[in-house]
Amino acid sequence: MRNDPHKDWDNLFNQLPLDTTLSVEQLEKVKRCALDAFENRPAP
Amino acid sequence: MARTDRNVFGELFDHFYPLIFAYCTRRLVVRECAEDVASEVFLKVAHGIQGFPGLCIEDFRRWLFRIATNELNAYLRQSIRRRELLEAVAQMGRINASVSGPLLDDTSSLDWQEVYEALGNLTDREQSIISLRFFGGLKHEQIAEVLDLEVGTTRAALSRALEHLRIRLGSRDVGRRSASDAPQGDFENA
C-alpha cells in the first residue's frame, strides 16, 4: 500500500502540461477592467 | 483598505490574479476559458468588495478562492463547457507510467483525458477539494476555510475524494463506474 498517497497525486498533477504564465499586456488589460469595476462598485 | 482604496485593490489584484488564473487554467485546461472565468472572478470581487467579510490577506484569499471555486463549478455545470474541456484535454496526451503507476498499483499509463473525465464524474464537493489542493495549491487549513469545514473533516474528505478518483481511474478499462464506486452520503450536499 502507499504510505503517502497525496505525494503520488502531487507527482501526477505536477506533470500537467499547461502554461499558466501571463504576459504583462494581458495582466494590464484585465487589471484595467477590474479597477474600472472597483471604481463603479455599489455604494456600501 | 481594499474596500475603499484603489491602489490597495490594485496590489491585491497583482498578487492574486496570477494565482487565480493558474487555478482556473489547471481546472479548465482551455486557456481562453480560464481567462474568462478568472476575469469574471475579479469583476465579482471588485463589485462585491464592500461586502468582503474579512480583515486580513488570508481572509481575502479564502473569500477569493471561494468565489473562484463557485465560478468554476458553475462554468463546468454547462455540458458544452465540459465537452470543450474534454476535447482540449484529449490533446494533452499520456502520463508517464512511472507517475501514474504508483496511484493505480499497476504499470499501465493513463492519459489526461481519463483523469479529467474521472474528476468530472465526482461530486462538486469532491471536485472542489481536489481542485483547491492540486490546482490551487492550497493547504488543508486553507481549503477548510474556503469550504467552511473543520480541518480534520477536510483531510478526511480529501482522502476519500482521491480514493473515489483512484477507483474510477482503476476501473476505466472495464467501463463506467459500478454502484459500489459511488460517492458516499457525506459528499451529496456539495
Tell me about the biggest sheet of chain A? none
Q: List SSEs of chain A in N-to-C order.
A: HH
Query: How many strand elements of chain A?
Result: 0
Largest sheet of chain B: none
Can you count the beta strands of chain B?
Answer: 0
* Uncertain stretches of chain B: 174-190
Give the N-to-C terminal Cα separation of chain A: 55 Å
Give the C-alpha Rg of chain B: 18 Å
Of all chain pairs, the largest interface belongs to: A-B, 30 and 42 residues
Could you tell me how far the N terminus lies from the C terminus of chain B, measured between alpha carbons in angstroms?
33 Å
Mean pLDDT of chain B: 87
**What quaternary form is this?**
heterodimer
Radius of gyration of chain A: 20 Å
Helix-strand blueprint:
The complex is a heterodimer of chains A (44) and B (190).
Chain A: H1 5-13, H2 24-39
Chain B: H1 6-28, H2 31-48, H3 57-76, H4 79-89, H5 97-104, H6 112-120, H7 124-135, H8 140-147, H9 151-170
Helix pairs in contact in B: 1-2, 1-3, 2-3, 3-8, 4-6, 7-9, 8-9
